[in-house]
């Protein structure tokens, strides 16, 4: 794939946000309704063992970014060759090359909703508090705005099923426009 992604005939989308905002559910629905390949980056990391140690305090593995990005490069190249677009979901966005994505969807959730979701996942207090603080301080949104051109970064609410459906509909409309705008590729 060229650096500008000009060989692609379908768009690539990143659904990102703090853990618990609904990234995987939203990305899965987008993939199904828009006809894109879903890449759950968290699952891919586990599947390929992209770890560089364990952080006991936060009760989480330490990511081996190089191993992950090398694997994802192949996935993106293969998808482009096969005429597929990708919808990836992950809680971090700044690690990915800008050229990979045409749309960055940053999901945001009310703190009380997020607290309940993280508690239901069994997050320990420190991990839950850190993620709550990240959402309050809009860390992922700021990282997206710093890492990608502002035109492709879209902040949307993800508190209810209706929000998710609305977000999927928006992406569906956006994709149709992207396909029209890029029909001559």
Automatic annotation (TrEMBL):
- Enumerate the catalysed reactions: ATP + H2O = ADP + phosphate + H(+); AMP + ATP = 2 ADP
- Region (NMPbind) residue ranges read 40-63
Per the record, its GO cellular-component terms are: cytoplasm; nucleus
| Highest taxon of the lineage | Eukaryota
Sorted keywords for this record are:
ATP-binding, Cytoplasm, Kinase, Nucleotide-binding, Nucleus, Ribosome biogenesis, rRNA processing, Transferase
Location(s), subcellular: Cytoplasm; Nucleus
Keyword Kinase assigned to the entry: answer is yes
Grouped into one coarse class, the protein's main location is cytoplasm
Listed under GO biological process in this entry are: ribosomal small subunit biogenesis; rRNA processing
The segments labelled LID in the record are: 120-130
Family stated for the protein in its record: Belongs to the adenylate kinase family. AK6 subfamily.
Q: Which PANTHER family match?
A: ADENYLATE KINASE ISOENZYME 6, POS9-ACTIVATING FACTOR FAP7-RELATED
Subunit annotation: Interacts with small ribosomal subunit protein uS11. Not a structural component of 43S pre-ribosomes, but transiently interacts with them by binding to uS11.
Please identify the protein, giving its name as recorded: Adenylate kinase isoenzyme 6 homolog
């Amino acid at each position: 794939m060229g650096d500008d992604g000009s060989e692609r005939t379908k768009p690539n989308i990143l659904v990102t946000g703090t853990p618990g905002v609904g990234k995987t559910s939203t990305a899965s629905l987008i993939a199904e309704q828009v006809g894109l390949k879903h890449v759950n980056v968290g699952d891919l990391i586990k599947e390929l063992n992209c770890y560089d140690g364990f952080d006991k305090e936060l009760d989480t593995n330490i990511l081996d970014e190089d191993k992950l990005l090398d694997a994802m490069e192949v996935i993106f190249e293969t998808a482009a060759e096969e005429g597929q677009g990708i919808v990836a979901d992950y809680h971090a966005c700044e690690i990915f090359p800008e050229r990979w994505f045409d749309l960055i969807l940053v999901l945001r959730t009310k703190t009380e909703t997020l607290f309940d979701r993280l508690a239901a996942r069994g997050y320990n207090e420190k991990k839950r508090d850190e993620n709550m603080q990240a959402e309050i301080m809009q860390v992922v949104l700021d990282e997206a705005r710093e890492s990608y051109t502002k035109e492709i970064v879209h902040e949307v609410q993800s508190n209810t099923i209706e929000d998710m459906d609305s977000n999927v509909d928006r992406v569906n409309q956006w994709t149709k426009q992207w396909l029209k705008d890029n029909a001559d590729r």
